[in-house]
Specification:
About 15% of the residues lie in helices and about 55% in strands. It is α+β, with helices and mostly antiparallel strands and about 90 residues long. It has one domain. Strands 1-2-3-4-5-6 form a six-stranded antiparallel β-sheet, covered by helices on one side. A hairpin with a 5-residue loop joins β4 and β5 (about 50-55). The protein starts with a strand and ends with a helix. InterPro entries: MORN (IPR003409).
């Protein structure tokens, strides 16, 4: 389908830290658990807006920012946190 994943696997599932790039230009960077987004992560839309926070079973449960524009102080800080988690 054109999607790609670069990151950790366990038992043939995305598990640990990884970056999932969707064919439509969207991207999720963060924690995975048994193939689902779980833990700290950031979803970036192709227009550059982001949603980040704590994910549970593939859904954003506790947003820390929503619709943040690229280059904003919040987006930059979340990017630094995600890079530190790696």
């Amino acid at each position: 389908n054109g999607d790609t994943y670069a990151g950790e696997y366990f038992a043939d599932k995305m598990h640990g830290f990884g970056v999932y790039r969707f064919a439509n230009g969207h991207r999720y960077e963060g924690a995975w658990h048994e193939g689902r987004k779980q833990g700290l992560g950031m979803y970036t839309f192709r227009n550059g807006e982001t949603q980040s926070g704590h994910w549970q079973n593939g859904n954003l449960e506790t947003p820390s920012t929503q619709n943040t524009h690229p280059g904003s102080p919040i987006a930059v800080n979340h990017s630094k946190v995600l890079n530190a988690v790696q």
